[in-house]
Amino acid sequence: xxxxxxxIQATITLIEEKGEHLEEITxxxxxxxxxxGLGLVxxxxxxxxxLIEMCVECIINGIVERFxxxxxxxxxLPSFEQLEYLGNMTLDFLFEHxxxxxxxxxxxxxxxxxxxxxxxxxxxxxxxxxxxxxxxxKPTVKRKTFCLITIMQQIFLRYETIxxxxxxxxxxxxxxxxxxTQILHDILEV
Length: 190
Prior knowledge:
The longest helix is centred in the N-terminal third of the chain and has 26 residues, at 48-73. By secondary structure, this protein is mainly alpha-helical. The protein has helices at residues 3-18, 27-34, 39-45, 48-73, 79-96, 98-110, 117-132, 138-157, 159-166, 173-188. It folds into 2 domains: 1-46, Orthogonal Bundle (Arc Repressor Mutant, subunit A); 56-188. 27% of the residues are buried. It contains 10 helices and no strands.
């Protein structure tokens, strides 16, 4: 394994170990675990922050890939229930892995890419929205799917403000699920 890959693997391991305490990860820890010199983090990635953003993207990519397996596991459910299940799973992941998820969402907003995690999530949801509303044309399905993903990101990023504004505690899983179901009904017009 080359030094760059060793740094990536060491950083992902530290992110998984530290959980919500990413501020505790140091360049020294990364390099020690990777078995490389201190200057290689900056050489390969520019900064610890950029390295962590890249590693978070890799972690989230893995989660998005698992959506396909989950869709296959739930294919016997009606389309709406599949979409509801996937949405609840997504929101639960975001809230349970708050720091990593926040880095991922904000990185996608700050530096959007054609195949970033937001786009990959959109692509995973698109066929489910289409299946829920086969009467909609393609542009409508794309627009409504975009709205759904954007709302879910806002539920996550602005949950405290939204909780106060709508008098619902979105940090609570049951409340979040009820709110998500209502959002699906609103967007899908069902």
